[in-house]
Structures are given as structure tokens and as C-alpha cells.
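Researcher: Please generate the 3D structure of the following complex. Treat every line as part of one assembly.
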Amino acid sequence: MPDKVILAVDALGGDHAPAVVLEGVAAALAEDEGLELIVCGPADIVEPFAAGRARCSARPTTEFIDMGEHPAEAVRRKKDSSIVVGCRLVKEGAAAGFYSAGSTGACLAAATLVMGRVKGLARPALTTVIPSPVRPVVMCDVGANADCKPEYLLQFAQMATVYMREILHVEDPRVALVNIGEEETKGSAFAQEAFALLKAQLPNFAGNAEGGDILAANFDIFVTDGFTGNVCLKTIEGTSKTLFKALKEIFYTNAKTKLGALAIKGGLTGLMERINPDTYGGAPLLGVKGACIVGHGSSSATAIKNGIHTTAEVVRRDLSGLLEKAVSKP
Amino acid sequence: MPDKVILAVDALGGDHAPAVVLEGVAAALAEDEGLELIVCGPADIVEPFAAGRARCSARPTTEFIDMGEHPAEAVRRKKDSSIVVGCRLVKEGAAAGFYSAGSTGACLAAATLVMGRVKGLARPALTTVIPSPVRPVVMCDVGANADCKPEYLLQFAQMATVYMREILHVEDPRVALVNIGEEETKGSAFAQEAFALLKAQLPNFAGNAEGGDILAANFDIFVTDGFTGNVCLKTIEGTSKTLFKALKEIFYTNAKTKLGALAIKGGLTGLMERINPDTYGGAPLLGVKGACIVGHGSSSATAIKNGIHTTAEVVRRDLSGLLEKAVSKP
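Model: Done. Output below.
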């Protein structure tokens, strides 16, 4: 039996909450016998769900943080929201990690404020697996820190290296800095400083990457500030979505194209699955004490299930402990 | 007959120079009887090409700036390179505009240094048409200014508005700021300052855009610093390229998929044409005195031809004059 892990889950997170969240919770419990889940949300939802269910308990909450609210403010004000309560369960030791597909900003704010950071780390960073058709790559930061110092990026790279090794089992990941040219002298003043620091202090640093290198998987880890990383991530998702929509229109043009589309459907479904972010189920906020994984708002039950599994894996591998050892101390 | 326009063209610009450049020059001359071109490059290439050709002359040069060279340094050192000479022809009034598919950095440096800026403008900006499957959109800056002040972005937006109106005939383009959230309070300190300035001073400002809005064409103009813009542009190009490569592999799986691909080939070719940057032939450096358009290194003869036509159009519409009137004076 896998090691026992207790996690808190936000029943209200995501566009299709609570239904798909509860479906994901049930599926995760069925697949992992070492798992125990505390479901946080309104009593009339979480209590009937947990009643009589093995390794599942309810933690009723009375408040809800909406996607549109100012994250830090909402977290300060709504102390009995499912997000804040979930993070507090980790802080108090009742749970070892927290999973939510709710407001990314609120999860980041709550986890950072409530759980605290691993020792020596300047800023936790939102890290995501980008499912390239070639092979999965990791990008960090994708939105936790819109304004960064070059030193943060060194720590982001060190944390992403540990994550990729422990969770994605890539033994020797190569890190690239997102920039606007390959040469050392390229980019903004910030990018040039970050380059010099990474070159001097990160053994697995492989140089500058351009936007085109990301989905082509020309490196394993793409390190950048949270502004650029978020724009990149959304640009990749949006470009794929727009192109697949245009393809679909071509497929539906007439009887002939519909037949043609049928012939390549199997391969296309395979490609869509390979590049589906649901496979990875969420983005870890690396560097908080404990584990916090944030899922896409549009997460399916499968995405929720996979996100919970990833959270359990992060706890079982003691990622917090490994990150604390990995980051350069200022 | 269209108005007479004299332009300088860099015979050495691009991965397939000089052959495709000269092919593009010949095609442009054939299509536009008002056009006269001065072809800059090694004497043994440009002189035989121009000899006996109507509305075409040769301007022999002895130096060449390579894609790998440090742009500003190369421009200072290589005063007899095709790029510097082309820009000087504009400065001296022998030509009204310059087109090159060579080193973007060198073209930007040479045009800015040699041609000078329109009055009141802080920084010229590299502007590009992104061929979305929905409809073309404009992004500015895509690489001329890696470090920006919020005031620059206001001027970029004003210039891009003029460009879109005059050259792409979009009467009332809506400008969005590239950011990491829709709300006014989102983003880096820089993005928040730029938002406030655009909101206060740009009548056609429509708010924040995220990465996913670009290829979806949810706005007409995407304004950003040159670092973010370049990363976005390369990410879109790279994502498309990687996805089409994966699609091609699916098509070639077996006899059935090959037949299927054949059925949708027409539609797919149409889509590829719509999103082909060659259609637009190059990115104008908006804000220099005169006109400077930089083509993709991989430009085809068609792209070169279209780039020359765009340069002529920019001159005929007196874009420099209109930009000078459009930009807010500090």
C-alpha cells in the first residue's frame, strides 16, 4: 500500500465545482489507497458527500472567494473560505497538502500567507508542465511574481530542477532562460543580469531560449519572471485553441472533408490528449511549506483527480524539504 | 499610374539572399510601375542585375553585417554595409524608404542612428502584422525596445493605430495592453502604470489582453514592451510550427490517413496561407524619418515582393508625417 497522505481539497474550485471536484475526489480515493482527503466547502455539499465514505472527511466552510475578487484582499477578509481553510489545515498539520482548481491568485496569496515559505527562499513560484507534442516541459514562474529580481530566477530554476527530477523523473533537466535572442548579450537589462547569474551559479543552465523553443521542447525547463511566463503560457494555450478551431471548421466544410477528418481522427485525438493540460492536473506553487497545487479553472474530473495525485506525490517525495536544500541562500 | 516612389533594397538580407531578394525585386518592379528601386550589395551581384533593367539601379557596397554580429557595433563599424548604405540613401533623400530581410537588430540600429526619429517620439518601435486565422492583428513593439517606460507604450499605441488605419484600412482599431489578467489591478508595476496612462490618454484603448487573445484576434492592436512582444510573437510562430509538424506526422501515418489528409488539403492550404507571415512581407520600424521595413530572415521571393510593396505604401501615405502628428509630445 502507498504511504498514507492526508490532503485538503477545495470543493468550490473551478468552473464546474462542486460536481466535477467531488467526482475527481472520489476517483482519486479509489485509485490511491494511501490517500485520505479532507473536503472543504459548504456543509450541505461536503457533509453528505463525505458521510460513510472511506478515508474522506468534511470540513464545512461558510465563505467563497470568487475568480473576480482581488486575491490578497479576499484572502485577508474571507478567513472561513474554502481556500483559506484548506491552507490553514496544512499550516496546522491536519493535512500535508492542498489542492484547488479555484482562483489562482487567491490560492497563491493564501498559500504564501498561511503556509509560509521554505527557509531561504525569496518567493514561491507557480510552476507548470506544458504538454508539448514532443515531450512535457516545465515553465516557472507562470504568474505568482509579476515583478522579479534576477536572484529569484536562480531559485526558480533550482526549484523547477528538483520538481522535474522528483515528479517527472527527468534525471538531468536542462534549464533555459526565456529571452529574445540566443546570444548572451541579448534581451532586457533584467534578462542579461539573470543570464549572468544563471551562468555563474546553475550547473544545469543551458543558455537563452526564444518563444519558439517552448512547445518545440528544445529545453526541459524554461525559467522566467511571472509576467512573461504567464503571457507565454496563455499564448501557447490560445494559439493551440485558435488553430484547432480553424481546423475543425475545415473538417466540417462538406461531406468529403468530414470523411477525411474521420480517417485522421484517431491520430488527432492522440495529439489532443498529449497536449491536454488535464493530464498534469495542475500547477504547483513551489516553495511553500507543505504542498499547494492549483488546477485550471476549466479542470475536468480527470484533471482534478490527477491534480490530487500530483499533490500526494509532492508530499510523499518531501518536495518542500528537497527545495529547502536546493535553493541558494542569499 | 501610381505615384513615383524610390526605395533602397538590401540585396544581402535574408537566409536565401541574394537570389530570392533579386527575384522579389524583379516581381515588385513588374507589379508597380511607379516604383524605382536602388539595390544595395556587392558590385558583382547588383550591377549585372540592374544593367538594362527599367527603374532599377545598383548601389555597390563592400561590407556585410551577419545575423550573429552585435547590431549596434556592426552598424558603427561597417559603414559600407548594404544595411547602413540603404539607410543613408534615405537620410540623404536619394530614396524615400528602405527594405531588408537581414539582421533585424542591425536594421533597427542603422535606421534609428542614420535616419533619425520623427519629432517628439521617444523610441521607434518594431511593429508586425500577426496573421491570425480570424483576421490580421497588429502587435507593437515586437523587439526594438527590450526595456520600456510606460510613456513609450502610449506612443507605440498611437503609431500602431495610424499604421492599422492607413496600411491595413481598419478604420477604428481597438488597442489592448498585453497583461496577465483582465482587471485594471493586474500585472507588473510596469503594466499597471501603462494601463493607467493608456486609459487616461488613448481614446481607442480597450483594456487588458491576455496571451490567448492575440491569435483569437479579440482586439486589433496589442501594445507591449519589445521583450514581451518578441517572446509572444516567437511563441505564436513556434506553437503553430510545432502543431503543424505534429499534424503532418498524423497525416503520414498510413494509407488511410494519407487519403484523409488529401480530402482536407484544400482547406488546410487555405489556412496555412491565411496564417503565413509572408503575406505581409515584413515589420515596419515605426517612427523613423522615412520608412524602414524589416522582413523575416526566411522570407520567400513573395514575402520580399510584398515587403517592398508595403514600404512603398508607407511612403505614399506619408506615414512618417502622420506619425509625427499622432504621437503625444512629452
